[in-house]
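Researcher: Next sequence.
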Amino acid sequence: MTRIRTLLAGLMLATLSLLGCASLPGFGWVTLLDGPNGMENWYAIGNANWRMVDGVLTADKGTGFLVTRQSYGDFQIRAEFWADDDANSGLFIRMQDTTTVTAANSYEVNIFDKRPGQDYSTGAIVDVAKVALPAPKAGGKWNVYEITAKGDQLTVVLNGVKTSEARNSKHARGPFSLQYYPGVVKDKGVIKFRKVQVRPL
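Model: Next structure:
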C-alpha cells in the first residue's frame, strides 16, 4: 500500500509540474526564425530582396512577403524587428490568399511610422483596429511585437504596451507573413527581423 501511495504521489507531482510549466513564458513556443536559422520555415513571394546581413533578415528593395509554410488558427506571435523611419512593413496573419496578400484577405499588423493617416500606422490592425494617437514609433530601434489571435479576439502589443485590439471573425485560419513594401519614398526604408516565434493556443 505504501508503494502505491508513493507512486500516486509521484504521478500527481509530475502532473502538477507539467501544468506549472504550461504557464512559463517559454513553454510551447516554436522558433521560426532566429538570426540565420529557420529560413526553411518560410517561402518568398514577390521580389523583395530578403537576405541575411550580419545574421539578421533584412530587406530594403522590391515588394514581397516571407510566408510561413504552416497555417495557424489560434496563436501568439512574438517578433523582434528593427525598422528605419521610412520603412513600410508589417505582419499579415490568418492569410486567405498567398498569391495576392492584402489587408482585405488577412489581418495586417502594421509597421509604418509615416503612414498617411496615422490611425492605421505602426501598432494598428489595418482597417480593423485603430491605434491610439499619437501613434507609437518603431523607427531606428529594435522592437518586439506580441500578437495574439484567439477566436475572434485580436490583440497587438508593441514593446510591452497594448496598441490595438478588436473582435473580428472574418478570417479564422491561415499562414502568416513578414512584409517588405516600398516606403513613402520608393526603394527607401529598411526592415530587419532577427527572431520570430509562434505559440499555438
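Model: The two ends are 40 Å apart (CA to CA). The chain is about 10% helix and 40% strand.
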